[in-house]
Amino acid sequence: MTASQAAQAENGDWLVGNPTSLQLASALWIGSVGLLILGLQPVLLGALYTEGHVTGDELALVATAEMIAIAIGSAIVAMLLPARNMRWKSAALLVLLALANFWTAYAGSANALIGARTLAGLAEGGLVAVATELIARSRRAERIGGYFVTLQTLAQCALALVLALYAVPAAGSAGGFIALGIVCLLSLVVAWTVPDDYADLPKEEQFANVATVPTITALLSIFCYFMFFGAVWAFLEPIGAQFGIDGRTVGLMVSASLAAQVIGAMTATVFEARIDYRFAITIIGIVAAISSVLLASGPGLSVFWAVALVMGFILLFIVPYQIRLAITADETRTAVLLVPAAQLFGLAIGPIAASLLIDGANFRPVPEFAAATALASVVLLGVFVLVARRRGKA
């Protein structure tokens, strides 16, 4: 570390480097573009299914392939590539993602759609790493992480509204993916205002820092929590149908849940420094398990609504505390770079694992599985705390 970097680490808000507010905001936007699809999948993939481009099984494969690709892309860029020439990398990834979206718009088969969304996911994961690499360098990574999830969710809400009201009704799913590609190209202007080179974090052996019991346990806790949400969210409509709630009403619940996610992210940003991460993750895990049990109990409309809103709120409320968990597990902050991968793998694997338990038209095992994974995340946190105390970290 140079003398100037040492001075910045001592006096500023950054461990290394000193990005301006504009540079930080630009990096967070680039990362948000990479995660826009998370809020748009119900609109865009639903349109693909309605138009007959894919069957239900093929739709699940398309969604899962993209989620796994995002996780892989974020891990590869964060762990294997140096944080240099970030403007060029951001621009190249945005162009690649735009091309993948245009390919999706004109894909003629399910295999082509899977290929297009896999390519999109790899580019999206790289864009996420542009943001998480900078977040990891902040002394207040939890707070910056809260800003990140707030920004991305607001962007998802706004774009989902535009697509649902204008692009998709006018031009179908193709119009939606073309609009998403245009957003990527417009964001090229922002790409040239991110920091070009991120100062190096003080670490030597990245993989050695990750391959420890505390770090692995922390990442598994995050993975299990997002398995809970992925499982429930993927099957929310058939779960509702089993208990007499129509698809239109469930669609309204999804929209309202996105708004609850924004509120959850903003609330966490305000309170993250006042609540211990262990307490927050434990309480949220228990709330997640209770919510899942309520879904499995055959709830009425009002309880179903309440559960959907609560799940939306806690989904992003927990993120700053998971970032703190990763920092505590690995003070070199390498583990922080893998938090998005753990989250996205959980979102992708949750529906697949839960689907193995579905018996015909009975979807009750899905929320039961979700309750188990939510509790598993709390148990793994407990294991982490015990191990970390022995090593003097907690």
Q: What multimeric state do the chains show?
A: single chain
- Structural class label: mainly alpha
Shape: globular
Outline the low-pLDDT stretches.
1-11
Find the count of extended strands (DSSP E, 2+ residues).
Answer: 0
Helix content range of the residues, please? Answer: over 70%
What is the arithmetic mean of pLDDT?
86
Strand content: under 5%
Q: How large is the count of helical segments? A: 17
Order of helices and strands: HHHHHHHHHHHHHHHHH
- Rg value: 20 Å
Distance between the termini: 27 Å
Which sheet architecture does the biggest sheet show? Answer: none
What does this structure look like?
This protein is mostly helical. It has 17 helices and no strands. The longest helix is centred in the middle third of the chain and has 46 residues, at 141-186. Residues 1-11 have low confidence and may be disordered.
